[in-house]
Give the backbone structure.
Amino acid sequence: MTDADTPARPAQKKNFFAQLELDTRLLGMIGAFVILCLGFHFITDGRFLTSRNIFNLTIQTVSVAIMATGMVFVIVTRNIDLSVGSLLATCSAVMAMTQTFITPEVFGLGLNHPATAPIAIVAGIATGVAVGAFQGYIIGFLGVPAFIVTLGGLLIWRNVAWYLTNGQTIGPLDRNFMEFGGINGTLGATWSWVFGALAVLFAFYSIWRNRRNKIAHEFPVKPVWAELVIAGISAIAILGFVAILNNYAIPTRRLQQMFEARGEVMPEGYTEGYGLPISVLLLIAVAVVMTIVARRTRLGRYIFATGGNPDAAELSGINTPLLTVKVFAIMGGLCGLAALVASARLSFHSNDIGTLDELRVIAAAVIGGTALAGGVGTIYGAILGALIMQSLQSGMAMVGVDAPFQNIVVGAVLVLAVLVDTIYRIRTGAK
């Protein structure tokens, strides 16, 4: 019997999830997150999955999630940054001192002046970029291991923040500055729905554009029904999230104060939801920009190429020392943004701000699928990892678990995440 006479083997049918072509690790993370939320909701007698708690959970996640996007680049290049929590504290101290002392004495601008908040934000982010670039220079050009440099940074910048403020809590902060913290700055229900609708349209456009580009380059594409399913899931997730936050109503007394500030009288029985916090919009902007950098720019390709094989990257002409400086400068700038969100949420700068954030940020990136061996990582995975970590901590706090045991659980989860990732790579043959 010849090969020509051998009947062709029918193509193996893919299952539902295979045809959707979704990342299995992403599905696993989402599944773990859902189970975690449902478990805490049951244990807390229905208090975990409420609009109020989801709103608080969201704004508490933002600062760590912002830094986790930068930590992806750091770990992908086979480095580590243990100084992010301390650098956040230094950036926060710079912002607080700029608002309360520098702008009044140097520029003659007091709190709540329109220029005060922008000056403070620029000063804090510039400090983060400068410190990050400095640490990156020592690592990239002088050859000192990142672990040692950033471990020293953990000690140095925490105490620099202390000396900048003389160990004092600095507050209150500028009113415009505090709008980036969460509850003090939201879009309101109407504009949140507008943003949600625009986000859905953007998601649909992205799906359509990716499909069109694949067809144009003769790449295989998903079935039309699979694209529609993903589009539908995206729309439900976006609009559902907006609906939940809009359902968290502003207290009546605060509404009355808002109307009184405008010289108006609040109508009888009037209610209004908080809507999307400005800090969440900032996180979304960071996620979009970092994803574009990772997937669409030369810098992103160089980062992942260097992480995959540093020797080959250097031989191909990539300036790896300069690349290290850029990566740590980006990490520092994101620490400045995180400091903005964290201090604005508290409404003041405190000496313990950002404590143990380095643990949470690294854990978020690793849980999100960033390989410690380098070369692999996603921005959306890191953000989801940060959300899982914050949900775990918030749920344990609601149950009444002591803070020391919370940290024990977080550390155990980090080790478990690395173990699962290692097993996954061995079984799939991934690098």
In short: Confidence is low (pLDDT under 50) at residues 6-11. The two ends are 42 Å apart (CA to CA).
